[in-house]
Write a structure and sequence with these properties.
The complex is a heterodimer. Chain A has helices spanning 3-38, 54-64, 75-93, 123-144, 148-179, 184-190, 195-199, 216-229, 241-244, 254-279, 294-323, 329-360; strands spanning 99-106, 109-115. By secondary structure, chain A is mainly alpha-helical. Chain A is globular. Chain B is mainly α. Chain B is globular and about 80 Å long.
Chain lengths: 365, 447
C-alpha cells in the first residue's frame, strides 16, 4: 500500500462518479427520445445537437430553483432523505466489474488493476443491502413531508419493498449456487466461454455460457423485481402521478427533487448493470485476441460489451414503460407474494437439487 | 347588526362604515389570531364541514380525509373529490362540482336564438357538435321548419365524427389515468385527423358554431369525401392498434375488470345515460329510441355491455367508434345534393350575392343580424345522444328573439352522480380509473 494505490482508488472513485453522472445525463435524454419515438412524438430537440443537452439544462434549472420547504415537514429527515436516496445508488455501482483486470507498472511495482470500484467477496449481499437502503429514503421522504399524498407514497413504498426484496434475493440464490460465489467478479468470470465448455458438445460453442440460459427463471424474476425495485413503470406506484400526484416527492422541489431524480436514474442504470453482470455475462464477449492489439481486445472491447448490454437492458426498461399500464397496489403485492416468491422458492429447490446432483453425482451411483 | 364573523368588513355599530384593519392586506397578515381558527381546521381537513361530516370517529381514528382536486392531474379538469380513506381504501367519497361554472345557461338568455350555438358549443368541449345540434333541433322545433336533407346528412356526419373524436379522447385519458402513457398520445394522434377535418370545414378545431338553427353554417369543403375516407381508414387502423395494446393486456384487464361497477338498477336510478348505461347492460340509445336528423336511415348497431365495470365501458366506447365510422361511411356514400341550410329567409340569412340584387334579401339579412329571429311562444325539450349520453336542450320562448329560459340536460352532470356508488370501498388507484371511465367533461357538468 503506497501513494500509488491510494491514487488508483481515488481515480476509480472519481471515474465511477463521473461515469454515473454522465450516464444519467445521457440516460434521461435517451429515455425521453426513445419513449417519444414510441409515442409518435419528437422529444427534446432544442438544447444542443438532437437535444442531447436537455438534461443538463433541466438539471441546471433545478439547481437554481428555490427549494420550497413546507411548514409541516420534519426538517432533519426531510433534508436527509434525498441524500439517503443518492448515496446508496452511487455505492451500488462500486462493486460492478466493468471489464477484465489489467496490469501496469507504476512506481516500479507491477500492479493489477481491476476495472471495478472494489471487489467485495460478499458483493451480491452488498448490492441487496444498498438497494434496501434506497427504499428507506422513499419511506422517510414520504413520511417527513407531513403531507397526505407523500404519506400514501411512502406507505406504498414499504409495501412494495417487502413484496419484492424477498423475491429478488431468492431469485439470486440459485445464481450463487451455480457460480459458486457472491463476488460479482467471480460470477462474471464463471460466465466466460461457451456452453460447449459446460456440456462438452462442440455444437454449443456458438452459445455463450451466460447465466441467462441455465438461470432463465431467476433472470425473469430478478428483472421483474428489479423494475419494481427501481420504481419504474409498471411498478411506479410510489410516485404514480395520476393517483397520488408524484407520491413521495410531491413536496420536494429544486435541488432536493433533482437528487431523487438522479438517484432514480442511477438505480435504473445500476439495475441494468446488475442484470448484465449476473445474467448476460458481464463484460464477456468475443474478444478477437488474435486480430486486435491487447489494449483493444482486453480493455476497450469488454467495456464496450458491458455498456452495450447494459443499454440493451435499459432499452427494455423504457420499452416496458411505454407499453404497460400501472399495476394497482394490491395487485402488486399479489404478484410479489403469490407469484414471484413461490416461483422463486420452487426454482431455488429445483436448481439446488440439479446443481447438487451435478456436483456430487447421483445418490445411487 | 349581528355578531361579527370572519368575513365582516365593516365595523359594526358605527354610523359611517370604516375599513377594519383585518380587512386590508397588511392587517390581515399582522392580526391573525394566535390560536388556530376553526376555519383553519376545516381547511386543513382536520375538521369537515358541510353535510359531509364524519359523525363518529373511528376507534383507531385512522380515517384520513383527502382532497382530490380541483388541482389534481387526473380529475379531468376541476372536479374535486373529498375522500375518506382508511389506508388506501375509500370509505366514502363526495364529488364537489362548480369550479368551472360560468353561468352559460343564464348567458344563453342574453343571446339570440341565432347566437345560441356559440354559447352552448362551449359546454361539452369534447363534443361541441352535439351541443350545437341539440340546441339547433330545439330551436327548429319551436320554429317548426323543415331542414333540407343535405343539412341533416352533414349534421349526422359531423356529430358522428365528433363522437369518434370524443371517444378517442376517452381512450387516451383512460389509458393515461391507468398508466398506459402511450395510449394518451395514440388517442390524440388519431383525433388530430378529425380535428383537422373540422378545422377545414368549420374554421375551428373546437367550439365550431357550425350547426345552427336552420341548417349548418357552410357546405362541406371540396374534396371532403377523400378526407372522410382517410379519417375512417386511419381511425379504423388506430383502433386495431389500441386493441393490440390494451384489449388483452393482463395488467389492463386486472386494473379494469370488476372495478367501478355500477349495476343497471343503479344506473337507471341515478339517471345515467350513454355508454355508461349501456355498459351496465341496458340497451338504450337515443339514436335508436328517438332518432333525430334522419339517423334512422343508416345501419348501425348499439353495443351493450354486461358487467358495468370500467372494462365494459372501455369496450363499449371502442365498439362505438367502429359503429360511428360505419355511419360516417354510409353518410359519405349517400350524401344528398341540395341546400345545406333552410331556404326559409326568416330564419337563415340570404347568400351575400343576393343582397346586392334583392331588396327582400337585404331586409332579411338586416333583420336577422340586428334584431334576430323571432321564435314562436312555447317550450320544447329535444334530446340527442351525445358521446356521454342524453344531451337535452330545454328552451322556453316568450315569442321574442331570445330564449326566455334555456336549460341543458347534460349527461356528464348526471353520470357524475354515480361516482360515489361506483367507487365505494375501492382503492385510490381505482378512483382515477373510475372517474375516467365515466368520462365526465367538467364544462358539461358545470355549464
Amino acid at each position: 500500500m503506497d501513494l500509488w494505490d491510494v491514487g488508483i482508488v481515488l481515480i476509480k472513485v472519481l471515474v465511477i462518479f463521473a461515469l454515473l453522472m454522465v450516464t444519467v445525463l445521457l440516460l434521461v435524454w435517451i429515455e425521453r427520445k426513445v419513449v417519444a419515438d414510441m409515442q409518435n412524438r419528437i422529444g427534446p430537440n432544442r438544447a444542443g445537437p438532437w437535444g442531447i443537452l436537455q438534461t443538463l439544462a433541466d438539471g441546471l434549472k433545478l439547481f437554481f430553483k428555490e427549494q420550497i420547504t413546507p411548514r409541516k415537514v420534519e426538517f432533519g429527515l426531510y433534508i436527509f432523505a434525498p441524500i439517503l436516496a443518492l448515496v446508496p445508488a452511487f455505492l451500488t455501482f462500486m462493486v460492478v466489474p466493468l471489464g477484465p483486470d489489467f496490469t501496469v507498472t507504476l512506481g516500479g511495482v507491477e500492479r493489477t488493476i481491476s476495472l471495478q470500484g472494489t471487489d467485495l467477496n460478499i458483493g451480491l449481499l452488498y448490492v441487496l443491502a444498498m438497494s434496501s437502503i434506497g427504499v428507506y429514503a422513499i419511506v422517510l421522504a414520504g413520511w417527513s413531508s407531513g403531507s397526505k399524498y407523500p404519506l400514501l407514497g411512502g406507505v406504498r413504498a414499504t409495501a412494495q419493498a417487502i413484496s419484492y426484496e424477498a423475491a429478488m434475493g431468492l431469485a439470486l440464490v440459485p445464481v450463487v449456487f451455480y457460480n459458486g460465489s457472491l463476488s460479482l467478479k467471480a460470477i462474471v468470470a464463471a460466465q466466460a466461454g461457451s456452453m460447449a465448455d459446460l456440456f462438452g458438445w462442440p455444437v454449443l460453442a456458438v452459445i455463450p455460457r451466460w447465466n441467462i440460459i441455465p438461470m432463465f427463471v431467476s433472470f425473469v424474476i430478478f428483472f421483474i423485481a428489479g423494475v419494481a425495485e427501481t420504481n419504474r413503470a409498471p411498478f411506479d406506484l410510489v410516485e404514480a402521478e395520476q393517483e397520488i400526484v408524484g407520491g413521495f416527492h410531491t413536496e420536494y422541489s429544486g435541488l432536493r427533487f433533482a437528487l431523487f431524480f438522479l438517484a432514480e436514474y442511477i438505480n435504473m442504470f445500476n439495475m441494468s448493470a446488475l442484470v448484465t453482470t449476473l445474467f448476460l455475462g458481464g463484460w464477456n464477449g468475443p474478444q478477437f485476441a488474435a486480430y486486435l492489439p491487447a489494449w483493444i481486445s482486453q480493455g476497450l472491447l469488454p467495456i464496450t460489451y458491458f455498456l452495450l448490454k447494459t443499454v440493451a437492458v435499459l432499452f427494455v426498461f423504457m420499452w416496458v414503460r411505454a407499453t404497460l399500464p400501472r399495476l394497482r397496489y394490491d395487485q402488486l403485492m399479489t404478484l410479489g407474494w403469490k407469484r414471484l416468491i413461490p416461483a422463486a422458492l420452487a426454482w431455488l429447490v429445483l436448481a439446488a437439487v440439479v446443481i447438487g446432483f451435478r456436483q456430487f453425482g447421483m445418490p445411487w451411483s | 347588526m349581528s355578531e361579527r364573523t370572519f368575513h365582516d368588513v365593516w365595523v359594526s355599530g358605527t354610523e359611517e362604515p370604516e375599513w377594519l384593519l383585518e380587512a386590508t392586506d397588511e392587517g390581515a397578515q399582522k392580526m391573525q389570531p394566535e390560536e388556530p381558527e376553526e376555519r383553519l381546521l376545516e381547511q386543513e381537513g382536520a375538521r369537515v364541514v358541510d353535510d359531509y361530516v364524519v359523525e363518529e370517529e373511528s376507534p383507531e381514528d385512522e380515517l384520513m380525509i383527502i382532497n382530490m382536486g380541483p388541482q389534481h392531474p387526473s380529475t379531468h379538469g376541476v372536479l374535486r373529490l373529498q375522500l375518506e380513506l382508511e389506508g388506501e381504501i375509500i370509505r366514502r367519497s363526495k364529488p364537489i362540482i362548480g369550479y368551472l361554472h360560468t353561468g352559460m345557461e343564464k348567458t344563453g338568455e342574453q343571446l339570440t336564438f341565432m347566437q345560441g350555438p356559440t354559447n352552448v358549443t362551449r359546454m361539452d368541449y369534447l363534443a361541441p357538435m352535439h351541443n350545437e345540434l341539440a340546441f339547433s333541433l330545439a330551436v327548429e322545433q319551436l320554429l317548426e321548419i323543415e331542414i333540407p336533407p343535405r343539412a341533416q346528412a352533414i349534421r349526422i356526419l359531423m356529430t358522428e365524427l365528433n363522437r369518434v373524436s370524443s371517444h378517442l379522447v376517452f381512450l387516451a385519458t383512460a389509458g393515461m389515468d391507468i398508466g398506459a402513457l402511450s395510449m394518451m398520445l395514440y388517442g390524440f394522434r388519431e383525433r388530430e385527423s378529425i380535428l383537422a377535418f373540422f378545422e377545414k370545414t368549420t374554421g375551428l378545431r373546437m367550439n365550431h358554431n357550425y350547426i345552427r338553427p336552420g341548417g349548418v353554417a357552410a357546405d362541406l369543403p371540396d374534396g371532403w369525401e377523400d378526407d372522410v375516407e382517410g379519417i375512417v381508414e386511419k381511425v379504423n387502423r388506430g383502433v386495431l392498434d389500441y386493441e393490440d395494446l390494451l384489449k388483452q393486456n393482463p395488467i389492463w384487464l386486472e386494473r379494469t375488470q370488476g372495478v367501478g361497477v355500477v349495476t343497471a338498477e343503479e344506473s337507471l336510478a341515478y339517471g345515467i345515460t350513454g355508454p355508461n348505461l349501456r355498459a351496465s347492460g341496458v340497451n338504450w340509445d337515443l339514436r335508436k329510441a328517438q332518432p333525430y336528423s334522419g339517423i334512422d336511415q343508416y345501419e348501425f348497431d348499439v353495443p351493450v355491455g354486461q358487467h358495468g365495470d370500467v372494462y365494459d365501458r372501455y369496450r363499449i366506447r371502442v365498439q362505438e367508434i367502429l359503429q360511428s365510422l360505419r355511419i360516417v361511411r354510409q353518410v359519405a356514400d349517400r350524401m344528398p345534393k341540395g341546400d345545406y341550410r333552410t331556404e326559409d329567409r326568416k330564419v337563415s340569412p340570404p347568400p351575400r350575392a343576393r343582397i346586392d340584387q334583392s331588396m327582400e334579401a337585404l331586409i332579411h339579412h338586416f333583420k336577422i343580424y340586428t334584431g334576430g329571429v323571432k321564435v314562436p311562444e312555447g317550450e320544447v325539450y329535444v334530446a340527442i345522444e351525445s358521446p356521454r349520453g342524453e344531451l337535452g336542450a330545454y328552451l322556453v320562448s316568450d315569442g321574442g328573439t331570445h330564449p326566455w329560459r334555456m336549460h341543458m340536460r347534460t349527461p356528464s352532470f348526471c353520470n357524475l352522480q354515480a361516482l360515489p356508488v361506483a367507487m365505494a370501498d375501492s382503492l385510490v388507484a381505482d378512483t382515477v380509473a373510475t372517474i375516467s371511465s365515466l368520462d365526465p367533461v367538467l364544462g358539461d357538468v358545470d355549464r
